[in-house]
Structure of Endonuclease/exonuclease/phosphatase family protein:
Amino acid sequence: MATSTTSTLPESRTEPDGSAVIRVLSYNIRSMRDDREALARVIGACEPDLVLVQEAPRFFRWRKHAAWLAARSGLVTLGGGATASGPMLLCSLRVTVERTQDVLLPRTPGLHQRGFATAVVRIGGVRLGVLSCHLSLQREERHAQGGMLLERLKEMDVPHAVAGGDLNERPDGRTFRRLAGELQDCWAVKPWGGEYTSTPDRPHQRIDALFATPGIEVLGCGVPLGLPDADLRAATDHLPVLAALRVPAS
């Protein structure tokens, strides 16, 4: 496992040919039930253009909590939250929003409602689809949701897309392998930082991931290791996944 800080990952920029280098962060924030200030510091330190959140606040005054986190992290809310049953999207002011859509997935009786937070955005000369997910704990429902994720990306009708979230499954699992069979598993393509996302006190498994469609160049992806351990442990019960991607001009 290579050591690094967020400064060793390529910074966001727009290239002369219109392509864009972007930073994408995926993070399960456990409904902001932990240290909110530590959470905002972690997100802000990663300097993301897009944040794919899981377990966003969903109940009383959830929009206010989401807006607080975005503002405290130097971002704005893009979509999702309670209306997507947990997944949410944040973005920097570098991002122009074309459209957003929150998708509720079919629910198995007795299990939690799941959903996708999706958007189509423009960054520089790039048009990009974005999807945040938190897949089921139940194996068969999770596998079906993996298929729905792939279908949703196709239905967005964009030249390039990124998707990510808490998969509740390790890379050798059936659903994880299904996604990695059609998309680029960014950590596997260009490892950077740390691999394991769960748990902050004892990282031992990779159940959170970022994926990119073919044609996007992965410049590095992993858990940023240069952030204060105290903040990472206090912020939530997952570690963040940060990727730098070069997306061709549309």
Remarks:
- The two ends are 35 Å apart (CA to CA).
